[in-house]
Amino acid sequence: MDDITDxxxxxxxxxxxxxxxxQLIEATISVIAENGFARTTLGEVARRAGLSHGLANFHxxxxxxxxxATLDHLSDEYRANWQAALAVAGPHPADRIAALIAADFxxxxxxxxxxxxxxxxxxxxxxxxxxQAHCGSNDAEYQRLLDGLCRELLALGGYPxxxxxxxxxxxxxxEGVWLDLMTMQAPxxxxxxxxxxxxxAAAFFPRHFGxxxxxxx
Amino acid sequence: MDDITDxxxxxxxxxxxxxxxxQLIEATISVIAENGFARTTLGEVARRAGLSHGLANFHxxxxxxxxxATLDHLSDEYRANWQAALAVAGPHPADRIAALIAADFxxxxxxxxxxxxxxxxxxxxxxxxxxQAHCGSNDAEYQRLLDGLCRELLALGGYPxxxxxxxxxxxxxxEGVWLDLMTMQAPxxxxxxxxxxxxxAAAFFPRHFGxxxxxxx
Amino acid sequence: MDDITDxxxxxxxxxxxxxxxxQLIEATISVIAENGFARTTLGEVARRAGLSHGLANFHxxxxxxxxxATLDHLSDEYRANWQAALAVAGPHPADRIAALIAADFxxxxxxxxxxxxxxxxxxxxxxxxxxQAHCGSNDAEYQRLLDGLCRELLALGGYPxxxxxxxxxxxxxxEGVWLDLMTMQAPxxxxxxxxxxxxxAAAFFPRHFGxxxxxxx
Amino acid sequence: MDDITDxxxxxxxxxxxxxxxxQLIEATISVIAENGFARTTLGEVARRAGLSHGLANFHxxxxxxxxxATLDHLSDEYRANWQAALAVAGPHPADRIAALIAADFxxxxxxxxxxxxxxxxxxxxxxxxxxQAHCGSNDAEYQRLLDGLCRELLALGGYPxxxxxxxxxxxxxxEGVWLDLMTMQAPxxxxxxxxxxxxxAAAFFPRHFGxxxxxxx
DNA sequence: GATGAATGAGCCTTCATTCAT
DNA sequence: GATGAATGAAGGCTCATTCAT
Lengths: 217, 217, 217, 217
Description:
Four copies of one chain form a homotetramer.
Chain A: H1 17-35, H2 42-49, H3 53-60, H4 63-87, H5 93-103, H6 112-123, H7 128-157, H8 163-183, H9 190-204
Helix pairs in contact in A: 1-2, 1-4, 1-6, 2-3, 3-4, 4-5, 4-7, 5-7, 6-8, 7-8, 8-9
The structure holds a DNA duplex (21 and 21 nucleotides).
Pfam families (chains A, B, C, D): TetR_C_6, TetR_N
Keywords (chains A, B, C, D): DNA-binding, Repressor, Transcription, Transcription regulation
Domain HTH tetR-type (chains A, B, C, D): 18-78
């Protein structure tokens, strides 16, 4: 009855807290991406994770907290991604800006599921306080960093213009092409998306960002 | 009891089909903006319009169709706005591009409610087929137009670069700053938003779009 | 504006009270037959009658009363039918019983719509008081008549058995084959239905009801 | 507060799936019988079962499927009843026909609630496809059996007549007296109902079915 | 008479949450 | 830890009824 060698007992083996949480968070991203915020239910999340209905509540206490944890996960993952990219980038501001741009289209980050989940969080007014609470500081950190890099490169290159606006354009262009990838019926591919953001950098910093997607420092 | 000024008697006043539909659509935009897609209920829409919930179904048959009609309304309104702007713009491509950019930030269009509603429709996976069906052709028309104008201006000004990408950047930058206006805790104002998009145009077409938000043809 | 020769005014011409009522009752029978009791709505009845929604209530005050009037109509029609059949039948009890049986399968009465409506009224518990109130006396009259005829024929023919039971069997067999016509996937036709009831009469009164559906008095 | 005898705690007691399903099906039969098809609501069914309305959907997914399960239950119960009766009946066709007739008036089957529910399913056009899908095969099996028995007895006894029609009359007479029990204000009792069907058998097969409800083989 | 907009009660269904096992 | 039965609030929708026009 309690034979641990019985295969029927195997699926029931208890996973660690953290493993279960991650499993449920990934399922949540997937469900949000596919069904949208409005039709994301705990039941569907649990089903996709191959778990029972009640377990999601057991691990996260409430749907609200599961969504918050999901947003946290996405935000941390995003931050870790660009930080890793920065770590291996050269010291020149153009290098670092290029690294940040490229990082946004890394295969781990620029996944259909993850893009759709981001869009859902942006679009849902209900989630705005959630978003502020969980991504606000990460976003602000990113923005300060990009602002600084643009200011440095502006000074180095003697370019005209407003660094804050340029940083903003770089950021929102990325978000915009992400939206395109979600919204359009026959969207362009990830390379074209990256090239589009690169074109912005090339327009702002023509002597550093070449037309062919290469740095020309 | 028969006091016609009694507000309780007002809802029973009959309006024409079109007036009621518009009233309900405006209420829908308002509710989506405030509560998000997931928490937009027929009941709340009706309450905000000061009507009974049954009336929404009477006029639109279902929630789905009310949302579709709302999206149609937004889409038509947006299209009418930029077409009107084009109608009074000069023939030069720079004039026309500037008109299109400015139109996106017209007070009628760039309303908090309307921006939030647009974002909600973009973000909700559930509404993607709806969006395609109701805005797809308008979007495509806008994009073709902007593509053509960029191509003309590129040729006229002897600028380097890819017209399609430039048109795309102009469009997604607008969407991006709209998102900022929705997402940020302390967003910049509409003028700064417009200036941001203008900065893109100035970077792409420096001899036509001056740094001060003025055409320099 | 009030040109009576304008063809557009023709469909609006006001019908007499009785014509409208009949029109609505026929529509009700049709809707009950097709959709069943549970899905019979005033709206559908009005639509099928080609009239406006509110008119049904205007003429019948409530749905309940429309159904009652429909049942009255069916009941009166049924009664009128067998009374007419009796009026032209000979005086012999066998003649009169045969006339009653045949009357139940007259093309005017034994219509799919009407059968289905009868079944609906029988089946719907809710309508049982309604049924009693509106058909009870007609049913009782019919039953007394048939009881009497069976008693006479029993005496005349020297048959054994209980007249009341025989009358009951004749009646319920008719109802039963009606139900068959409604319930079965591939029911037999009206002639076979009539032959079935005739077979009962032939079993009870073999010297009067021949095997070939002919009286053998 | 934790008193297990407190009735308020009872509903929270968990039962197995099958027990709950049966409980809800019995409640459904009862509500259909009392209120009719049109006024059978999940809420009323749940209330009568002493459960929450959500549970009905939990166990049956939809009202439609609850009704289908109810019909299945009735149909299986009916079939099991006459099969059990056949199992203990003698081999002679008259014995078997008599067993079938008597089975239809067994106290378990011929309950007011169950009769009313049957009538409701017959009468409601909406439920006709449901009926075909769930009772069609059982009905056909019963009919084939009765056809065969009548044919055998006809041959054995040298009776004139059409076996199929006789079988049909036996069946519809049963249904008809059932309807009487439902429809009439002061119906006769179950014994008289049985005697009525017996009278039919006696008329068809006089040398086997005696006038006193006894087989005379 | 006739129309159809408007109301609101009531239904079916979904789903977050609780909790006995 | 894990399961899944049970609850009940809330949402979408239908429809009988009312009533201004």
